[in-house]
TrEMBL record:
Species whose genome carries this gene: Acholeplasma oculi
GO molecular function: ATP binding; ATP hydrolysis activity
Keyword Metal-binding: no
A GO CC term attached to the entry: plasma membrane
Annotated gene: livG
Organism domain of life: Bacteria
Name used for this protein in its record: Branched-chain amino acid ABC transport system, ATP-binding protein LivG
Amino acid sequence: MNDLNQMYYKKMESIHEKHFAWLKYRESHLKKLLNQVESHQFKNKSSLQQELDAITSKLEIIKNPETHLVVKDLKMYFGGVKAVNDLSFEVKKGEIFGLIGPNGAGKTTVFNCITQFYRSTGGYMYFRNKENQITNLADRKVHEMIQEGIARSFQNVELIWELTVLDNLLVAGHSLLLSDYLEHMLHSKRMLQEESVLRTKGYELLKKLGIEDYAFRSPYGLPYGVLKKIELARTLMTDPTLIILDEPAAGLNDQETKDLAKTIKEINQSLGITIFLVEHDMGLVMSICDRICAISFGKKLALGIPSYIQNHPDVKKAYLGEDIDE
Ligand SMILES: Nc1ncnc2c1ncn2[C@@H]1O[C@H](COP(=O)(O)OP(=O)(O)OP(=O)(O)O)[C@@H](O)[C@H]1O
């Protein structure tokens, strides 16, 4: 074989090698593509739709920095009872947002789904957390809500009667402490420093709400209006960005309700905290809420400013019991 032939064969060899490598690459690429196509064929339309809905809801909150919470197509079924059925709304940063509806409409269930006391049957809840990150609440656990920036109160006053009012606040603040269990056992310097900061913070909050005189006594026997304020102060201990209040005015007289309304408004305005509340007292709801969502049988009836909701025929019919045909 002369030199020319040798050169020719070498060149052909390298061309073949390159072609082989290209074929191998193409083969593996096509295998991957086929796998993807197959898995998509097996995915039914609804799961693709669900994926799309989740992305759309997330994009909605990412695109709009004013949005604090997005609830989309929320469902909560208890066997045959559809307590919440495809409910969608969004809560804006810094607003007071009310959720109203007749007894059994699903209001508390919505709160329980958002705060993960209940695992929803379906739908999405995206929240702009303390770090301004978008978090899917359904992926979080109930005890992680505080770290995300959500604090809540319950329909019934849930205080520890054996502790002083201030210590009740400290219990809430403890979830944010850096010192660990051992440091608490040994009363380490860091733990004592942190506790002292918490005590001052708790006392300042009681002062802000005008109930510092009760700081060092048991909450047992205090007027209901004061107990509700202690609960409110306790939610503030965790530095929340969103406070969820379940019927804050339940059991209060007219004067106490007015006083509480003023306090909620003050917290909202001076601390810039978003408030999301469920309430039956229409006077309170209409006077302090920026926007209201009315629901009945777990479904949205109307959403808008108080005057719009007050005059909405479906709301009047379902919630106020007025027949619009009359
Ligand atoms: N844990 C549960 N198990 C079964 N059914 C439930 C549960 N929680 C709520 N429900 C039902 O879901 C529906 C909505 O209840 P929910 O307490 O959310 O209503 P609500 O609007 O908060 O009522 P209210 O104003 O009386 O507090 C009701 O029919 C209720 O019986």
